[in-house]
């Protein structure tokens, strides 16, 4: 596979996902970038904005195993990871694997579970393995977490700690679709049941595990110019000295942005990154990795606004 073939594959995958998810092209692109960059995604938005449908559609476009966990206040770590159960017939312990043993994991409404259960994903997301009773179990190189959360409700929810948020490559904010898109969605559902099976959308699984590995090999071969790397580092370091930010982004954040830039370049059929790639990816990659100062919060500023102000101040390479 060369860059041209890879670009055509991504275009075809976008089209397949678009059969079910309408009006979210930018979000779809960022989810695909996260998958090929080996990262994870946190999707935030009000109810009824196709967050779960997006995850199911992405999984349908890939020939990979998919599982879903509905996070609830009574969910325990063992419900996510699995547990060793004693078999009285063999007098041995047998591992009953949890839903985390998959390729694509949808952690639905992750902020409804307590921190103890949320932390069950920390090792899985960072190392792609889990440790149960002292034994390590690999989850495979394709393991990807797409978590959703509802920002509206506060009762019965547990905000994700900074250490957990830092495991996500992107935090994507899903808003309501445009008026024309909503009309198109309603027109489509006029001819089929609102809760029809996703398979009726006709999404074809185009990305196999082998194709994913080939794509990542192409991306790894893309080398970023020192000017681009310096630009990324300067932007990240600027978050640590900005008066509107209490805690800035980490070195892991800078590395995440660089990885995402390589993927975006490959999506466009380029073997080099551009400042435009950095600017397009900086906000979704850092909005969840910074903590605003109390004065900025009192003034009503948002992480997105603060990050855009930093981009306006830091000179881009030419």
Automatic annotation (TrEMBL):
The keyword Thylakoid is assigned to this record? no
Q: Which GO terms describe its molecular function?
A: ATP binding; ATP hydrolysis activity
Q: Which Gene3D superfamilies match?
A: Magnesium chelatase subunit I, C-Terminal domain, P-loop containing nucleotide triphosphate hydrolases
Keyword annotations for this protein? Plasmid
- The lineage's top-level taxon is Bacteria
What the entry lists under CDD domains is as follows: AAA
Q: Tell me where in this chain the AAA+ ATPase domain is found.
A: 37-178
Q: Which SUPFAM superfamilies match?
A: P-loop containing nucleoside triphosphate hydrolases (SSF52540)
> What InterPro entries does this protein map onto?
AAA+_ATPase, ATPase_AAA-3, CbbQ/NirQ/NorQ/GpvN, ChlI/MoxR_AAA_lid, P-loop_NTPase
Identification of the protein by name: AAA domain-containing protein
């Amino acid at each position: 596979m060369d860059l041209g073939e890879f670009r055509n594959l991504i275009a075809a995958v976008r089209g397949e996902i678009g059969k079910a998810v309408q009006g979210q092209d930018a979000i779809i692109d960022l989810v695909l970038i996260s998958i090929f960059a080996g990262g994870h995604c946190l999707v935030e938005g009000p109810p009824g904005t196709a967050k779960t449908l997006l995850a199911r559609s992405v999984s349908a476009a890939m020939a990979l195993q998919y599982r879903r966990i509905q996070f609830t206040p009574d969910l325990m770590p063992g419900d996510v990871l699995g547990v060793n159960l004693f078999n009285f017939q063999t007098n041995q312990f047998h591992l009953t694997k949890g839903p985390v043993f998959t390729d694509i994991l949808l952690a639905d409404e992750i902020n409804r579970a307590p921190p103890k259960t949320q932390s069950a994903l920390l090792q899985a997301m960072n190392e792609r393995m889990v440790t149960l009773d002292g034994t390590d179990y690999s989850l495979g190189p394709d393991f990807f977490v797409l978590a959703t959360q509802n920002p509206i409700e506060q009762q019965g929810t547990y905000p994700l700690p900074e250490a957990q948020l830092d495991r996500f490559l992107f935090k994507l904010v899903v808003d309501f679709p445009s008026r024309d898109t909503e009309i198109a969605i309603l027109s489509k559902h006029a001819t089929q049941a609102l809760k029809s099976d996703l398979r009726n959308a006709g999404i074809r699984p185009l990305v196999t595990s082998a194709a994913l590995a080939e794509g990542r090999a192409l991306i790894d071969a893309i080398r970023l110019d020192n000017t681009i790397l310096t630009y990324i580092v300067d932007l990240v370091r600027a978050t640590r000295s900005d008066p509107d930010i209490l805690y800035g982004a980490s070195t892991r954040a800078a590395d995440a942005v660089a990885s995402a830039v390589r993927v975006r370049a490959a999506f466009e059929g380029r073997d080099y990154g551009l400042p435009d790639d950095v600017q397009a990816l900086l906000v979704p990659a850092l909005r969840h990795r910074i903590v605003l100062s109390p004065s900025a919060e009192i003034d009503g500023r948002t992480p997105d606004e603060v990050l855009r102000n930093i981009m306006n101040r830091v000179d881009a390479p030419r």
